[in-house]
Amino acid sequence: MEEKKRYHIRVKPILCLTAEEALASGVSVNEETVEMVVLEPNPVAAPGYAVLRTEPVEVIAALTPSQRGERIFQSRHDAMRYLQSQDPGMFRLYGVKETRPLERDEIAALGDATPLDTVLRQLQEFEDQDRKKDRD
């Protein structure tokens, strides 16, 4: 199996497909350290773990990061507990092989092909979710 890359804001467990998407998801937090995470399937031991969807990237990209349910965990136990709480076959366990913080200029240089309107739509959905949580 091949390695996968995901991105996240250091203080959030939600994984994103692109660095720009992760940056957009952290706008309200003032924490702007985006990390690139290189993941490998079937981990024996790893410094961290992630649970990723098994669907093709095209299907995953149509969902917002919070709808995807892809998460990063410090312990295998927490990752397995989350994995077992999801629909069977929908997610898979990965081990963190490498993490690296990205600077803003690196994010721009990566040239993630996320159209601005997609990022803005996702940002609006995050804000709508936050407002809904505040009302509940």
Short characterization:
The protein has about 140 residues and is of the alpha+beta class. It has 6 helices and 5 strands, in the order βαββααβαβαα. A 5-stranded antiparallel β-sheet has the order 1-2-5-3-4.
Explain what this protein looks like in three dimensions.
With 136 residues, the protein is of the alpha+beta class. The protein has one domain (4-135). The protein has 6 helices and 5 strands. A 5-stranded antiparallel beta sheet has the order 1-2-5-3-4. Helix 1 packs parallel to helix 6. It starts with a strand and ends with a helix. 24% of the residues are buried.
Main attributes of the structure:
136 residues, alpha+beta, five-stranded antiparallel β-sheet
Strand segment count: 5
The strand line-up of the biggest sheet is 1-2-5-3-4
Number of domains: 1
Helix and strand string, N-terminal first?
Answer: EHEEHHEHEHH
Layout of strands and helices, then pairs:
Layout: E1 4-9, H1 19-25, E2 34-41, E3 49-53, H2 57-61, H3 65-68, E4 71-73, H4 76-84, E5 91-102, H5 104-110, H6 116-135
Antiparallel strand pairs: 1-2, 2-5, 3-4, 3-5
Helix pairs in contact: 1-6
